[in-house]
Amino acid sequence: MEYFADLHIHSCLSPCGDDDMTPCNICGMARIKGLDIIAVTDHNTARNLPAVQEVCDAYGLLLLPGMEITTREDVHLLGYFPDVAAALEFGKLVKEHLPKKKNKPSFFGNQRVMNSDDEQTDEEDALLIGATDFSLHEATMRVLGFGGVPVPAHINRGSHGLLVNLGFMPEDYFYTTVEMWRLLPCDEKALRGRHVLHNSDAHYLGDIAEREHALRLNHRTVDDLLSWMRSRQTV
After folding, report:
1. Under a CB-based contact definition with an 8 Å cutoff, are residues 202 and 10 in contact?
2. pLDDT tens across 60-87, in order?
3. How is the chain split into domains, by residue range?
4. What is the CA radius of gyration of the chain?
5. Would the pLDDT of 119 be above 60?
6. What share of the chain is helix, strand, coil (3-state, %, to 5)?
7. How far apart are CA 213 and CA 231, in angstroms?
C-alpha cells in the first residue's frame, strides 16, 4: 500500500516554529493536504508529542514520534521512535546534554508546550536551538539504544546537513535511510542503497507537504514504518 507522509514538521515548541504550529493546526492541515502519516520533530525535545498523538488519533493520522537532534558537529539528526513514551525518555536525556542556557523568546522565539485542545500548558525554558554535546556517532547510538531509527536530516542543505558539514557519508553509522532536500543536488553515492525521504521541514502551516511523497508499506503502523527505514534499499 502507498501512504503519503511528511516526516519532518516542527511545532510551536521549536523556537523557530511559528506560534500557529499547534497540535490541532498541524494535524488539521495534514488532513486537508491528504496526508496519512506525519512526524513532529522538534529541536532537541519531544514535549509536544503527547498532545500531537491525541490529535492524530482523533484525525485518523498515524504519528511517527520524532525529534531533531543537533550534534556537537552542528549536524541535524532525525530520531524516530517506536512510541511517544520512548521519545519523551530520550528527550529527558537530550536535555541533560544541552547547553545550560535559558531561552530568550524575544530573540530565539517562543517554546510553547501545548495540550490537545491547543492550550498552552508550559513554556520550555531550556535553549532548545543549541547543539548538544553528543557527537554524531554518540547521538546515533543513543537513538538506536532507545529502539529508534537515526536519519540524517536534509543531508545536502544548509549549515546543518551532514554532507555539507562533514563532506562525506559515514558508512559505519547505521544510516539505512536519509533525508534529502529535493530542490538541491546531492551526491548519488551518499544515497546508494538507502531509502530517501523528501520531507517539508515545515515551520509554518502552509509549508506542510502536499500529497506527493508516498511510502510503500504493508500496513500503516509505526512498526512497519520503522522496519522499512531499517531495511536496505535494493540497488
Report:
1. yes
2. 999 999 999 999 999 999 999 999 999 9
3. 2-230
4. 16
5. yes
6. 30, 20, 50
7. 19
Answer for the pair 128, 136: CB distance below 8 angstroms, yes or no: no
Contacts of 17 (CB under 8 A, 6+ apart): 10, 11, 42, 109, 203
Strand partners, 120: 114
Tell me the per-residue pLDDT of 212-223, one tens digit each, with 9 for 90 and over.
Answer: 999 999 999 999
pTM, entire model: 0.96
CATH of the domain spanning 2-230, picked from 2.30.180.10, 3.20.20.140, 3.40.50.920, 3.40.1190.10:
3.20.20.140
Across 94-125, b (16+ Cβ under 10 Å) vs e yields bbebbeeeebeeeeebbbbbbbbebeeeeebe
| H-only helix segments in 15-152 | 23-32, 49-59, 84-96, 105-108, 136-145
Q: What is the mean pLDDT of residues 123-141?
A: 97
CA distance 226 to 231: 9
Neighbours of 41 (CB within 10 A): 30
Q: Would you tell me how many other CB atoms lie within 10 Å of the CB of residue 58?
A: 12
Instruction: Identify which of 218, 137, 126, 233 has the alpha carbon closest to the alpha carbon of residue 177.
Output: 233
Neighbours of 193 (CB within 10 A): 10
44 in the Ramachandran plot: left (φ > 0), alpha (ψ -120 to 50) or beta? left
User: Which set of grid coordinates corresponds to residue 93?
Assistant: 536525556
**For the residues 178-185, what does the mean pLDDT come to?**
92
Q: Which alpha helices (H) appear in 74-191, and where do they start and end?
A: 84-96, 105-108, 136-145, 162-165, 188-191
